[in-house]
Each structure stands twice: as structure tokens, then as C-alpha cells.
Amino acid sequence: MLDSVIVSGIVTIIIGVGGMFAYFWASNWVLDHVFLPAKGEHAGRNINRANQIRPWLFLFPAMFALGLYLVVPVFYSGWLSVTSGVAAGGWYRNYSEIFANDTFRIALLNNMLWVLVVPAASTFFGLIAAQLTDRLSWGNIAKSLIFMPMAISFVGASLIWSFVYHPDIEIGVVNAIRGLFGAESGVTLIDGDIVDSFLLMVVLIWIQTGFAMVILSAALRGVPEETIEAAIIDGANSFDVFFKIKVPQIMGTIVVVWTTITILVLKVYDIVAAMGNQYRNLEILPTQMMRYFDSGNYGFATAISVVIMILVLPVMVWNIRQARSETR
Amino acid sequence: MAQLVLQDVRKRFGKVEVIHGVDLEVKDGEFVVFVGPSGCGKSTLLRMIAGLEEVSGGDVVIGDERMNEVAPSDRGIAMVFQSYALYPHKDVYGNMAFALRHAGEDKKVIDERVRKAADILGLEDLLKRRPKELSGGQRQRVAIGRAIVRDPAIFLFDEPLSNLDAALRVQMRVEILRLHQRLKTTMVYVTHDQVEAMTLADRIVVLRDGRIEQVGTPLELYHHPKNQFVAGFIGSPRMNFLPARAAGEGRVTAAGSGPIEMPVEPRAEAGELTLGIRPEHVEMVAPGQGTVAGEVLVAERLGGETFLHVELDGKETVVVKADGGVTQKPADRVGLRFPPEALHLFGGDGQAFARRERQGVIA
To answer: How many beta-carbon pairs under 8 angstroms link A with B?
Structure first.
């Protein structure tokens, strides 16, 4: 049994790697010997043309796979959103329907709250954690602890926090703390209030602070020590050094971290599905999309997915642009 | 009046002592250069004056005040760093104005002082530029401008020219000299380059392994080095050293030479001696004449002058600074004359024999 798994694994690797190698070699050979041979009266011209074609030849497998699994679905979703179930009304029927829907508007509002709060809080806490842990002798242990939630799946994290928020005073940490101050019985923390979204956001902040901390800590270490010493001689205290000298110098990285988390937040689904699925007030766009998808309403589902994509797009562009200028 | 006094200043990192008790007085308006090989503690000493390193022992006194525990910004010093240490997110104006803005200085005063500093350094047209849009020399000027604006009692320079190319270094060296002549402020300057030290300093402090080897004017160090280390460090190319033996009556023999009369005060010395002579003082004569003889190994021709590396018959190598037009080639035999008045003599412990004062030598 195990043997056959290993054998088939090895065979797959050989076929995959060997196949790609064969493809690169064969396509290259065909290009150089059949289509544009480097001999005869057009030898020079042929070599130049072959060199222009070659990169595309080698890029083709990757572009094909990405196209098949990424680009085609995007356009197909877009197509479905304007064709599926729009018999009555124009092509925009799905969009006008979902925008007229109260739950969609709650989801949109919640999504905006998530986008405003989570990236800001994660980046802020990550920045503070990065700066403080750098100065501690046990900073690396603190860093590992803060980073650890990154390794937990969103659903797992939701489960952990469900226990933290648990209504039973014997189980829930929050209620237990209330108990310390004299509360006799627990309260239900997540009961579908619109503000309960913030309790769910805490979970994602808890996860993402570690990510922000690690990236920003590396950036902070890249700040030249001499600029800090110059600032100290110029009369800056440690607070000024941090906010006026260090933070401005890593602003590019902060923006990248911020936008990366923003993109992630726009896609978050698991936490709300796991912790607040039954409450309409906690709905966000992806959970609503999945609800329509599950009920077979592909027109509405794809329309929401397009809305999400449009929301992500500008952040994405900014993110990539910033990341590029960082590496330059 | 002493502007800066170091009294038995020590620095320890953990259990390792890197500065072993430095005593120094710097007069008001003086240009003092700390020079020494890397790791000699010159930068650490400067950083202790600046307050960037804690003083482990002894006192740092600026003006009349003991500064050991005073914050860097309150010591009346300004520092120029090797890497310029400009704030990359601020323009030139912002870089120069940072300290004053921070001190809550009046906007008009800031503007006046920044523009005055920019005028001194020729930065008027660059005030709106960011550091990354400036050349190395311009950045260094901004760093100096940032120091000037603070109107310090002492300027501290930490190898400020090391990141510049050779031509620019010479140019900036002159600019720093002129700046000192203009501002007449006390300056303490750290460098590993003895040429910079010689050209800039009123007084040079030669450091080695956390100790002062010698303090003196450039020519004092050149003509009267206290020991073999200073003799070898000051001057380029470095002084030639040859093992020597006492030959009685204040004379020595070295590298197969006859007895040479030494221009030094005699002193009881049992151990091995070392004869020192600078390349520029060795005279080339016909083979068979002169003090010693040897064979040319390498000729480095710089145009105006030629450095000949000559292997003596005793196998020691002597560098000779000769005229640019000399025709000697490798493998040619030459005679070398050591003018007695140019010789240095060092004892077995490396300490120099005191040289007699002579006419025609400025000390």
C-alpha cells in the first residue's frame, strides 16, 4: 500500500519533471532546426527571431496553467454574473438585486469595518511588537509566541476563540475574568449584535499581528543605526526616534504589510463562517457569496465575487507597486 | 583654555577593556585628529565624547562641565558620521533643521541658520532635494551642514571622508580645513588615513590598542616619533626599518653597513636595535658607494617620483623615494646612502632614542 504510494509519487515526479524537460528541449529543438534554422541565407535574421520567440516558448506551460486555473475562472465568473438567472430584467439584474438586498448591505458595511479595523490594528500591534521585542533579552521567545497563531488555520483559531468567548463562566476566559470581578454567571458574548463583528475581528488581528511583526521587525533592523545616533545627538528621545526616524524610513514596508492584510481581509470567510454563521448581522461578502453558491444561485454568488474582486483590485495594484519600489 | 578634557577615560565592553585610560586636553579652537589602525579605539573614544557610548571610567569634560552622564544633545557637540547618516525621508532643509525644530526653535531663527549653513557649504540650490538625489560629496556637505546649524562648541568627525572617491576626498579635505579656519570651532576628527591626519590636524593623537602612543603636531610626529609604531604609521610610504647593532661610540651597523654615526642621545640599551629611515631620505648613489648596496626589485613609477624597492645584500628590503626620471630597472644594482642626520634609532622595546634637534628641521 505505502509502497505503491511512494512508487506512484516518484513516477509522477519523473513524468512531471521529465515531461517538462522534454517539452523545453523538444520545443527548443523544433524552433532552432525546423522553423528558424540558423543556417542558409537568413541565418542571422532567423537567430534573432528565434531568440524573440524562445522566452514565450518556455513561459508557455506556466502561463497556460495559471490561465486555466486563475484567469479563465475570473472571466467565467464575470460572465455568469451577467448571464445566469437574468431572463427577467437586463444583464445587470443580479447586481441590482443584490445591492437592493438588506443582508448584502450589512455584509458590505461589515466588510468595510473589517477592512478598516483589522489591517490597521494588525499593523499597529505588529509594529509595536517588533520594536519592543527587539529590545528584550527574551525578545525572540516573545516573537515566536506572537508569531505562532500564523501557523493555526482560521477555523482552528475560530475554535480557540469560541472557547475564549464561551458563555459558560467555567469555560470562557472572558467570562471567567468577569467572574474574578464578582460576576455570578456568564453572558453570551456573540449573539448577533452588529458590534459583535469586532469580537470576530480580534481573531484575525491575533493571527495577523505576527505576520506584521516579522516583516516590520526585519525592516526596522534595516534602518541604519547611524541615522538613529544622529537623531539622538540632534536631541530626539526614544519616542521621537521611533516615530520620526524609524517609522518614516520603513513606511514603504508598512504600506506593503497593510495592503497585504487588507487583501486577506477582503477574502476572509472561515472566521465568520465558523463563529457567526447563524447571525445575519455578522455577515460579510464572502459568507454571503458562499450562501448563494450553496443554494445554487450562481448569478448572485458570482455577482458578489465580482464585487469583492473590484474592491480588492485597487489595493492589489497599490500593494504590488509598493512592493516593487521596495525591491528596487 | 581647554575645551575638551579626557581624564583617564576607560571603556569596557563586558570584561574586555578596549580603552585603557586616555588623558588628553584639547584647546579651544584646536583641530585634533585621532589616528590609528582599525580597532585602535579611536571611533569608540569619539563616540564616548559624543555620549553615544557610556564612559566606563574616568571623566569626559567639555567646557567646565563633567559630561559623563549628560545626554548627547546637551553636550554642545555635533557629529558627522562616516555614512553621513542623513534622514532619508527628509529633504536637505529638513535634515539640517531637525535638531532646531526639535528644540522648539523659532521658525525664523531656524530658517536663518539653515540658510546660513547652506550658504557656507554651497547647498542653496539643493535644499528641496532628498538625500538619495545627492552625490556623495553633496551628502557629506549636508551632514556637515546639519552639524553647523546646531552651532556646537565641538565638531566631531567620524571618518567623514572614507566613503568618498579619492579626488573628492582631497577636495573635501580642503573644504573642512577652510571651514575650520572660518568657524574657528574646536574639531575632533577620527581617521585611519595618516595623510588626512597630517594635512588637517593642529595636533595628532596616535592611538594603538586603546592607548595613546603619542600626541603632537604633524611635524613633531614626523621628525620625532616616540616609538617605532608612530614612526611607521606617520609618513607614506612608511619608514624603512633595519635591524641594527651597536658599534660603540654612538654608532651602529645595519644590513652590512659600516659603523654609522647616529644623531641621537645615547642611552644604555642592551637589546636589539632598529634603524629607521624614511624613503624620502634615502639617497641613491653608484653601486659600491654609499652606506649599503642592493638590487632593485620593483620600480613603482608615479611620474613625478619613483618608488624603488631595493633588496639589500642582507636580504632586507628598503623603499627609496627617487626622482621620477630615474632609469634604474629591476635587477639593477644600486648603492644607497643613509644621511646620518635623517636616521632614527629604536631600542628593543620599540622606544625611540631621542633625536638631537638640528638646524633646518622644524619640530
So the answer is: 59
Task: State which H helix or E strand residue B35 sits in.
Answer: strand B31-35
- Co-location of B211 and B270 in the same domain: no
Evaluate whether B256 touches B314 at the Cβ level (below 8 Å). Answer: yes
Of B81, B98, B102, which is closest to A226 when you measure between CB atoms? B81
- Kindly indicate whether the ipTM for this predicted assembly is greater than 0.85, answering yes or no: no
Cβ(B213)–Cβ(B251) below 8 Å = no
Predicted confidence (pLDDT) per residue in A7-48, tens digit: 999 999 999 999 999 999 999 898 888 888 877 788 888 888
pLDDT, one tens digit per residue, over A172-189 is 899 889 888 888 888 888
Tell if the CB–CB gap between A245 and B102 is shorter than 8 Å: no
Task: For residue B322, give the H/E element and its range.
Answer: strand B317-323
Domain co-membership, A127 together with A194? yes
B46 with B155, same domain?
yes
Q: In chain A, which residues have their Cβ closer than 8 Å to the Cβ of B90?
A: 248
CA neighbours closer than 13 Å in the CB half-sphere of residue B192: 9
**Where on the phi/psi map is residue A40: left (φ > 0), alpha (ψ -120 to 50), or beta?**
left
One-character DSSP codes across B241-277: EEEEEEEETTEEEETT---EE--B------S-EEEEE
Q: Domain range holding B115?
A: 2-228
Domain that holds residue A298: 96-327
